Amino acid sequence: MKLFLDSANLDHIKEIHGWGVLAGVTTNPSLIAKEGGDFLQTIHDICELVQGPVSAEVVAQDTAGMIREGKLLAQVHEHVVVKVPLIAAGLAATRALADEGIDVNVTLCFQPTQALLAALAGAAFISPFLGRVDDLALDGMGLIREIRDVYDNDFDLETQVLAASIRHPRHVTEAALAGADVATIPYGVFVKLLNHPQTADGNRQFLADWDTVPDKDIEAQAKAFLAAKG
Ligand code: E4P
Fold it and tell me: Residue 165 Cα, ligand 1 centroid: separation in angstroms?
């Protein structure tokens, strides 16, 4: 499963990109508004940094407007994926944009039938909002599993399942087990994927023990060893 960062914050994106694990980024109008700054410049800068799919969302609510905005967004950078909402106008816009070779991420998916429609319209990605489904005391991960099964039962559907609205590390593990192609993860959760108190404790203990060794300089030792070895 590929990992995307769900953020428009360049500092956060730079930090996680530095780990060497980041395959893409998703934004939405709320995330862009939160950061301020110029929308298109931000999208361009993220694309340049990440060199992978970066979702930028249209705000038009009619098909013609979505197509116009989508075509303009796609020209901002070759890595832009146009994000459209899962409404009738969005399906029609997805079909039109996909027919022109523009990748579309269909967002705000809450049931498998919506995911099927998006895939049939030519979506490159479908974004089921598992956290928001859980918020309703329903089964967000069940939604991911059902979409996976629906897509796997039809070899013509190549839409990638992008698990969105992730709330905690367990969501990431379970999305991977459920067969999601991608999880898009907020910065705070991404950091939690890595940090574990026992990793920190173990690392501290190893260093404390190493401190008792008389010759601690591994690089100098290695150079001398390799030189002696010829
Ligand atoms: C990503 O594409 C979605 O916009 C995002 O994951 C929504 O997350 P939220 O439910 O935490 O706002």
Answer: 4
